[in-house]
Amino acid sequence: MPITILQPNNVKKINAFIIESGGVEHTQRKLQEISKKARESLVGFHDSDIKQILLGFIEFNLERIN
Predict the structure, then answer these.
(1) Do 32 and 66 form a contact (C-beta atoms < 8 A)?
(2) Where does the pLDDT of residue 50 fall: very low under 50, low under 70, confident under 90, or very high at 90 and above?
(3) Cα 3 to Cα 8, 11, 14, 39, distances in angstroms
(4) How far apart are CA 61 and CA 19, in angstroms?
(5) Cβ neighbours of residue 14 closer than 8 Å, sequence gap 6 or more
(6) Close Cβ partners of 31 (under 8 Å, ≥ 6 residues apart)
(7) Which DSSP symbol is given to 44?
(8) Do residues 55 and 39 touch, judged by C-beta distance below 8 A?
(9) What is the CA radius of gyration of the chain?
(10) pLDDT at 66
């Protein structure tokens, strides 16, 4: 019978590996880095509802990591 990687025991091992190897912290740093670039790319645009929505999406993603 083939081994399925997403068996409950394997998921726990995968999660532990991600945490122990610093994967969560790396992902958080990358999200902050990309979010900063996204905010900077919006600076040149005049204030508008769409710009505020985009800034809101950035903030929403940053809040998810806290």
Answers:
(1) no
(2) very high
(3) 12, 13, 15, 44
(4) 20
(5) 5
(6) 61, 62, 65
(7) T
(8) yes
(9) 18
(10) 65
15 token code pair = 């999660």
What is the band of 9 on the pLDDT scale with cuts at 50, 70, 90? confident
pLDDT in tens, 20-32: 999 999 999 999 9
17/63 Cα distance (integer angstroms): 24
Three-state SS string over 8-36 comes to HHHHHHHHHHHHHCCHHHHHHHHHHHHHH
Tokens linked to 38? 């996204």
What is the greatest pairwise CA distance in the chain? 60
CA distance 24 to 15: 10
